[in-house]
Amino acid sequence: MAKIRKDTRIRGNGMADIHVMSNVGYSRYRCVLHDSVPSGNNRAGFPWKDVLLNAGVTGTSSMTVGTGAGQITQMEYDSVVAGDLLELVTTLNSQGAADPTSVLTKNAVRAMDEYRESLKRRLDDFGRLLP
Question: Domain span at residue 113?
Fold first, then answer.
C-alpha cells in the first residue's frame, strides 16, 4: 500500500487543492481543502460570496503564502481572502486503499460537498430583514 507524505499537495478532481498537512494516525491525514464558493444567492437574495465573507466563513486562510511544503501560492491565498474559495481544515481517511491519493480525493470531495451544504442550510436566511 502506498503512503502519502505529509506536506503533499494533491490536485483534487474538480477541487482547487487538497493540502496534506500531517499524518494524524494510521492512514489518517490532516488536510486543508480549497474549493469554490457556491454560486447563486441565498434565500434572502444575497450572493453566496458576500454571505460567506460577511458571516466570517471566508476571507482568511490558515495557511501561509510561499512555495514550500505546507504553503499556498499567492494567487490561491488571494482567492481565499477575496472570498472566491472556501477553506476547510479536516481529517481525511485513506485506510486500506491501494491508491490512497484517489481515496483522499474522493473523501475530500465528499467532505467539501457536506461542508458547502451545511453552510447553505445555516446561512440561507443570512441578511434577511424582517418587517
Answer: 8-123
